[in-house]
Amino acid sequence: MQTATPDSTMNHLLSQPFIRQALVGLVCVAVLLAVLWMYLQPDFLLTLANQVWGCF
Fold it and tell me: What are phi and psi of 15, to 5 degrees?
């Protein structure tokens, strides 16, 4: 009888297309929400604009 190691269990779960797509989707949504949150911060926008302007 084989015992499942955490590594083999994770590989098995990630090999299923639905779970992999769900994880990729969740990561994408998290990144998009983080970017949206940063753009809603006025100080971040001012800093970003100053950095872009400083390149020219």
Answer: -80, -15
Tell me 56's DSSP state.
-
| Cβ proximity of 38 and 44 under 8 Å | yes
- Per-residue pLDDT reduced to its tens digit, 20-36: 889 999 999 999 999 99
- Evaluate whether 19 touches 13 at the Cβ level (below 8 Å): yes
Per DSSP (E only), the strands in the chain are none
pTM for the predicted model, two decimal places: 0.56
User: How many C-alpha atoms does 11 have within 13 Å on its Cβ side?
Assistant: 5
Amino acid 4: pLDDT: 57
d(CA 32, CA 48): 17
